[in-house]
C-alpha cells in the first residue's frame, strides 16, 4: 500500500451535530491513502463517545480538549502531528463528494501550488442544492479616500451550479475558503502557524494574504467539490458553541485584530461588512422565531418588535449558554 501523501485534519466550525455524517463521507469518498487527525473541542457526550469509538475502529488520531476552541486553535493543535507532504483542513460540517481528495492532491502535484481550494457548494443534510458558495475569489488592498481597505469577491457565489459549470476551470486564485483547503505542510515553516487571534472572521483572508506575501501560489480546483451543510436547524447541544463562535466578543476581537495587523482604516468597508455578516449568521438559531413573529404580527409592527425581541432573546441565550464557556485567546 502506498504511503499517504496527505493528512486530513477535521476541526469544529460552529456545531457538532453533523459530525457523524461528515466523518462517514470522508471515509466513503476519499479514494487515495490518507492519515486523519480529528480535533474534538469539547463536544457533547454522545459525540465524544462516537468519536472515541471511531478512532479505535479506524485508527485515526483523536485529540480532545475540555474547552471550546476557535477553528485556528484546533488547526494549530494538529499541525505538530502532521508528517505528510500535504495537509487538508476540513470543517466538521462539510460533506465531501467522490474524488474530492484525489483531485486536490493532483492539482497541487500538477501546478506546484502551495494551497488548493475546491469548489464549495451550499446544501442541507442529504440534499445538494447546487448553489455555489464559492469558486475561487478576488482579494486586493485598495486605497479609498486616502484610507487603506480590502476588497474581496467570492466568484459565482449564489449562482446555480448547472448554469455556470462550464465556466469553472482550474486556475490561480487569490482566495479560498476555510471550509476545506489543501496546503503543503512546509508552508507553515515560512508563514508560521495560523493566527489564533482571528477566532471566527478573516481567517482565510489572513492566510491567503500571508501565503501570497511570500510568493506562494493558490489554485482553485473545480474537479474537487465539497458541500458546506448549512446550520439549520441546530441540535439543542449545538447552541452553546454556535453562540460563542458568533458572539459579539469574538466578532469584534477578530475584526479589530485583522484591521490592526494589516493596517486597514478603522472604518474600512471590509471590517463593517464582516461584522454585519457575522451578526446575521449568529441569528440562524432564531430563524423559527423570526418566521413565527413575521407570520402573526401586524406588518407595520414587524420590524421594531422583531428587532427588540431578537435582542432580548439573544442576550438571554448568550448569558445562559456562553457564560464561563469562552477561553481567553
List the helices and strands and how they pair.
Blueprint (H helix, E strand, L loop, with lengths): L5 E6 L7 H11 L5 E7 L3 H14 L2 E5 L5 H8 L7 E6 L2 E3 L3 H12 L3 E10 L2 E8 L2 E8 L2 E8 L6 H4 L6 E2 L7 E5 L2 H5 L11 H11 L4 E12 L9 H7 L2 H14 L7 H14 L4 H10 L2 H24 L7
Parallel strand pairs: 1-2, 1-4, 2-3, 6-12
Antiparallel strand pairs: 4-11, 5-12, 6-7, 6-11, 8-9, 10-12
Q: Could you list some keywords that capture this structure?
A:
single chain, 329 residues, alpha/beta, 10-stranded mixed β-sheet, 12 strands, disordered C terminus
Strand content: 15-25%
Largest sheet: 10 strands, mixed
Look at the structure and give the mean pLDDT.
90
Total number of helices: 12
Give the structural class.
Answer: alpha/beta
Straight-line distance between termini? 42 Å
* Radius of gyration, in angstroms, nearest whole number: 20 Å
What is the 3D form? globular
The strand count comes to: 12
Strand and helix order: EHEHEHEEHEEEEHEEHHEHHHHH
Low-confidence stretches at least 5 residues in length (pLDDT < 50)? 322-329
Helix content: 40-55%
Amino acid at each position: 500500500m502506498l504511503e499517504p501523501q496527505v493528512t486530513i485534519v477535521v476541526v469544529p466550525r460552529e456545531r457538532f451535530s453533523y459530525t457523524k455524517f461528515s466523518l462517514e463521507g470522508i471515509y466513503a469518498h476519499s479514494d487515495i491513502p490518507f492519515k486523519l487527525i480529528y480535533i474534538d473541542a469539547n463536544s457533547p457526550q454522545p459525540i465524544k463517545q462516537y468519536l472515541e469509538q471511531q478512532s479505535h475502529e479506524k485508527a485515526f488520531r483523536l485529540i480532545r480538549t475540555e474547552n471550546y476552541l476557535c477553528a485556528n486553535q484546533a488547526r494549530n493543535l494538529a499541525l505538530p502531528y502532521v508528517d505528510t507532504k500535504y495537509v487538508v483542513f476540513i470543517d466538521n460540517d462539510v460533506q465531501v463528494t467522490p474524488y474530492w481528495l484525489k483531485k486536490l492532491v493532483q492539482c497541487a502535484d500538477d501546478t506546484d501550488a502551495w494551497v488548493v481550494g475546491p469548489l464549495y457548494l451550499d446544501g442541507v443534510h442529504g440534499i445538494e442544492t447546487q448553489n455555489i458558495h464559492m469558486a475561487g475569489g478576488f482579494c486586493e488592498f485598495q486605497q479609498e479616500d486616502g484610507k487603506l481597505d480590502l476588497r474581496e469577491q467570492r466568484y459565482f457565489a449564489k449562482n446555480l451550479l448547472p448554469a455556470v459549470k462550464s465556466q469553472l476551470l482550474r486556475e490561480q486564485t487569490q482566495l479560498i475558503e476555510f471550509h476545506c483547503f489543501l496546503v503543503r505542510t512546509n508552508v507553515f515553516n515560512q508563514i508560521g502557524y495560523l493566527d489564533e487571534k482571528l477566532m471566527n472572521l478573516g481567517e482565510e483572508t489572513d492566510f491567503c494574504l500571508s501565503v501570497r506575501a511570500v510568493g506562494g501560489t493558490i489554485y482553485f480546483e473545480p474537479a474537487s467539490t465539497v458541500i458546506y451543510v448549512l446550520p439549520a436547524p441546530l441540535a439543542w447541544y449545538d447552541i452553546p458553541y454556535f453562540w460563542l463562535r458568533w458572539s459579539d466578543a469574538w466578532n469584534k476581537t477578530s475584526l479589530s485584530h485583522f484591521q490592526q495587523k494589516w493596517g486597514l482604516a478603522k472604518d474600512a468597508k471590509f471590517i463593517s461588512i464582516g461584522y454585519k455578516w457575522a451578526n446575521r449568521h449568529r441569528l440562524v438559531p432564531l430563524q423559527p422565531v423570526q418566521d413565527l413573529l413575521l407570520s402573526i404580527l401586524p406588518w407595520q409592527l414587524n420590524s421594531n418588535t422583531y428587532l427588540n425581541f431578537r435582542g432580548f432573546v439573544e442576550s438571554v441565550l448568550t448569558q445562559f449558554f456562553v457564560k464561563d464557556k469562552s477561553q481567553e485567546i
